[in-house]
Amino acid sequence: MSGTARERARNRRGRPRGTGLPDRSTLERMADLLVDGAVATKTEAIRQLAGDDPSVIRRLQRKFRDCEAQLIEAARIRAMNRYPGPRPTAGTKLVRFWDDLPIWNQYGITVVSTLVLMWLGLEAIRIA
Question: Which residue ranges make up each domain of the chain?
Answer without folding.
Answer: 22-82, 98-127
